[in-house]
Model the fold of this input.
Amino acid sequence: MELKTYIRILMRKWWIVIPAFLITFTSTMAFTFAQAPTYRATATFVMSPSAAQGDVRAYVDYLDIMSRRTEIANTYTQVAMSNQIRQGVVTALGLSPAQDEKIDVESKQRAGTNVLEVAVEGSDPVLIADYANRIGAATIAYAEKLYEAYPLTPLDLASPPVDPLKPNKPLNLAVGAALGLVLGVALAFLSEYIQAPLEGMLNVGILDEDTGAYNKRYFLQRLGEEMSRAKRNKYPLSLAMMNIDHPGVMRASLSPQFRGEALRKVTVFLKQYLREEDVMARLEGTTFAFLLPDMTEEKAKDIMERLQTRMAWTAFEMEKSGLKLNLSGAAGVAAYTHNGAGQAELLSSASQALQKAEATGYGKVSLYAESEPTDNSQP
Done:
């Protein structure tokens, strides 16, 4: 399908897209603002050889050992996250086990450095900053007993964070909006997919098998209904007929399959430029009728001229033969004037206008008012 076909489906199914978007976005917003904020405070420490290690040569040796061996740094990170260090901090802060369960502690060595990072997450920004600094102080004290030659020193102490780590409200709302839009579009196309077979079953008996347009029987039924409505409400109603032909293409001597393929392509092409309430039907042969409710004859003439221009400028490629055809047509338009005329008379008027357009030349549109009446016989 072309892009405009997708757009047309979405516009027709707006009543699915908009509610799905609003429900998803509103749910995301409610969930986001209902979440308790979580903050993150980080303290950093540096591991380095003790400056008291004898001469410069010894200091360099200790520095080389520290750079080539990661066990010392890994040990310090494990110490910072140990239960012993954590329980000491919990006791010092006077926290209950329930309060401590809501606090997460993470310790790691920054890649390519001798910097140890202690990060604490929780709902109280002041508490987690104090918690991180106390974890660091306890780890420094414990490290002095393990590796006296490689002490830890504070680099940046943790401070109470201002902005929460999560929820990330802008990101959540953007994701919610995107998911709502995707869900709405998916439901719209799913509805269209399900509806298509149902409409196909309902359309059995009212479509022309060769072209896919409505058949004459259904068109006459709709014509009567629209004439009655137009007369009752004093609305304009126009009827147009178009004969589609091309030298050497639509002649009776050509195969029915070739003519049928060409007319099917023309039907699909013309339908996309009609309104949803318009009715296009095949009357017979290469003659099509267009029922245009709430449209004056002048406006109907403009529409038919536009359709003929678009059709003349479009090359219809026949899939079986590979040929490309530029088809042309002639059209006649008649308006229903609420004067008590019946279907046969309105059809005859449109047929007379079509005959005059054909006599003038293909690519022309004629109004019934400009034609000389001949008879009231139905085409």
In short: Residues 265 and 316 are 7 Å apart (CA to CA). The longest helix spans residues 169-202. Residues 39-156 form a domain with the Alpha-Beta Plaits fold (CATH 3.30.70.1130).
